[in-house]
Amino acid sequence: MITEEAVFAGGCFWCMVKPFDQQPGIVSVTSGYTGGHVANPTYEEVSMGTTGHTEAVKVVYDPSIISYEELVGIYWQQTDPTDAFGQFADRGDSYRPVIFYQTEEQRLVAEASKEKLQASGRFNQPIVTKIEKAQPFYPAEDYHQDYYRKNKPHYERYREGSGRAGFLRQNWQ
Length: 173
Hints:
Layout: E1 4-10, H1 14-21, E2 26-34, H2 43-48, E3 54-61, H3 68-76, E4 86-87, E5 90-91, E6 97-101, H4 104-120, E7 130-133, E8 137-139, H5 147-150, H6 152-161, H7 164-172
Parallel strand pairs: 6-7
Antiparallel strand pairs: 1-3, 1-6, 2-3, 2-8, 4-5
Helix pairs in contact: 3-4
């Protein structure tokens, strides 16, 4: 099987795993950090805002089953693409929304998708999600991996309490 990788930042990485993890053709989804200037950062360092990293997920997928364009579509529907300064209750650069492209083809797909979303009129504000070249990705600590499975009650409370679930219901479903 030939696989490819996609990296998406959409606020708290706990909430970004499940939507991808449940799709056909997904091999793995890893929570982690990217976009910063410190090798192997810890959650505490990233949370302090001193490393420049953003919480993100790395999606390994089989492109013969699910396309990068489909993944970008899933990504949009997990975020508020009009908020550049974080996502929902999570504020600051470590929670900013970013599509990190691996190849020129991914960049073109992401840019076209962003333009299409802007033109759709779904949102009254500009689509401000960044599209940036991928940088080294560092997996988060084990307790952050598959959080929605390991800590389901807390995950569900957090997803609702942060405002994410309500926003997604109102704007995407």
